[in-house]
């Protein structure tokens, strides 16, 4: 007997499944071990199509995570700016700012009419103690082209999830949303 899985109403229902010695359901491949049935191959193709269609298709360049880890672990940078390349296929490192760069210098690097992602090692004082938080900024100004804003918004999760250790996220559409006061307010809430 073959195990056939049907998906109905977001529930997985098994029919005619085999059970192992512990009375647990086994996944069926075919009569021959290690060989997939035609149904399973079709299901894999269908699932991979869904995964590719659910994202923007923009991938993360290889050095993006390494550069982030240099900021996070090595404190080699104060900030990193990322952009989507001209072919709209990859998120790449646009610029790095040296340790000790002022907050105003970092914010001034955000383009007035274009989108960017930024990672900022934000230094602030809390109850007399110097502290730092690694903050992700999704910068999509109102005056940026609509298609670019849509691309950056739909690609944000791919970079956000790949950079492990981000403590806070700020989305900015104009200068008032990325002011030092906004950053201070956000870090004091966590």
TrEMBL record:
Region feature Disordered, mapped onto this chain: 1-40
Keyword Coiled coil: no
Domain of life, per lineage: Eukaryota
Span of the signal peptide: none
Record domain ADF-H: where: 55-188
Biased composition regions of type Basic residues, renumbered to the chain: 8-18
Keywords: Actin-binding
Keyword Transferase among UniProt keywords: no
GO molecular function terms attached to this record: actin binding
Gene Ontology CC annotations of this record: actin cytoskeleton
Feature: compositional bias, Basic and acidic residues: 19-28
Family per record: Belongs to the actin-binding proteins ADF family.
Protein name: Cofilin
Gene of this entry: cofB
């Amino acid at each position: 007997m073959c195990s056939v899985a049907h998906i109905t109403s977001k529930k997985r229902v098994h029919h005619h499944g085999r059970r192992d010695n512990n009375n647990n359901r086994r996944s069926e491949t075919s009569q021959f071990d290690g060989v997939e049935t035609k149904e399973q191959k079709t299901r894999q193709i269908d699932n991979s199509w869904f995964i590719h269609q659910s994202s923007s298709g923009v991938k993360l360049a290889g050095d993006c995570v390494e550069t982030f880890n240099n900021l996070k672990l090595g404190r080699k940078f104060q900030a990193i700016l990322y952009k989507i390349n001209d072919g709209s296929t990859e998120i790449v490192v646009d610029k790095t700012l040296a340790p000790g760069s002022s907050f105003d210098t970092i914010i001034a690097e955000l383009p007035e009419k274009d989108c960017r992602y930024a990672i900022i090692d934000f230094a602030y004082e809390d109850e007399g103690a110097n502290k730092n938080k690694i903050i992700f900024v999704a910068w999509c100004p109102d005056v940026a082209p609509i298609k670019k804003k849509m691309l950056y918004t739909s690609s944000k999760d791919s970079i956000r999830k790949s950079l492990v250790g981000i403590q806070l996220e700020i989305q900015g559409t104009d200068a008032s949303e990325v002011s030092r006061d906004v950053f201070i307010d956000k870090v004091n809430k966590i």
